[in-house]
Specification:
By secondary structure, the chain is of the alpha/beta class. The chain has helices at 2-6, 18-29, 53-63, 73-83, 94-108, 122-134; strands at residues 38-42, 67-71, 111-113, 169-170, 176-177. It has a three-stranded parallel sheet with strand order 1-2-3. Strands 4-5 form a two-stranded antiparallel ribbon.
């Protein structure tokens, strides 16, 4: 992956269809069962999609697929600044694109990584793999019509589906881990 990223070059045209591509990828993920995630390498720029950012955000919220974004805007901006300071890329709203990438990742249950360079992404890869391997997200949706801001107590129990009793958890060394 490192070598793939270092080989990325500025596209010859500025028509980017990021929102359309994201919505299409999320649609393809919908029928996939089990644990899934979408890893996106992007600047977040979109200048030519038929879909809007709001369409992409709604698709991310409804997809059930966490989106992990590696934001390559900083390295792309630096390479563009060296080659062309007055072209169409100079007028793009890079801050808005990063804000949108952050929101897409957060709303889908994923995460945004914004490396300063694509030469060493080890930290991002390690965190991404930890998220994909061992982290779980538990969501809660209140069925009560009362004040949504009111505090609630929620109890989470880990149940073994085979026995119906408490779930036994062990670490990589086989030692029992107590749930809290």
């Amino acid at each position: 992956l490192d070598s793939s990223l270092t080989g990325l070059r500025k596209p010859p045209i500025s028509e980017l269809n990021f929102y359309d591509a994201l919505i299409s990828a999320l649609g393809r993920m919908r029928p996939v069962s089990g644990r899934k995630a979408l890893i996106v390498l992007s600047t977040g720029l979109d200048t030519f999609s038929k879909a809007s950012y709001q369409d992409a955000l709604m698709a991310a919220r409804q997809s059930g697929t966490p989106i992990y974004v590696i934001n390559i805007a900083q390295p792309v901006r630096e390479s563009i600044a060296i080659a062309d300071t007055s072209g169409p890329y100079a007028r793009l709203d890079w801050k808005r694109a990063e804000k949108e990438l952050q929101e897409l990742a957060t709303e889908s249950g994923g995460r945004l990584y914004s490396p300063q360079s694509t030469l060493n992404l080890t930290g991002a890869y390690d965190d991404l793999m930890e998220n994909l391997r061992v982290r779980y997200v538990i969501t809660y949706k209140s069925t009560g019509g009362a004040d949504l801001a009111a505090p609630r107590q929620v109890r989470v129990e880990l149940i073994d589906p085979r026995t119906g009793g408490p779930l036994g958890i062990v670490d990589a060394n086989g030692r029992v881990v107590r749930s809290r």
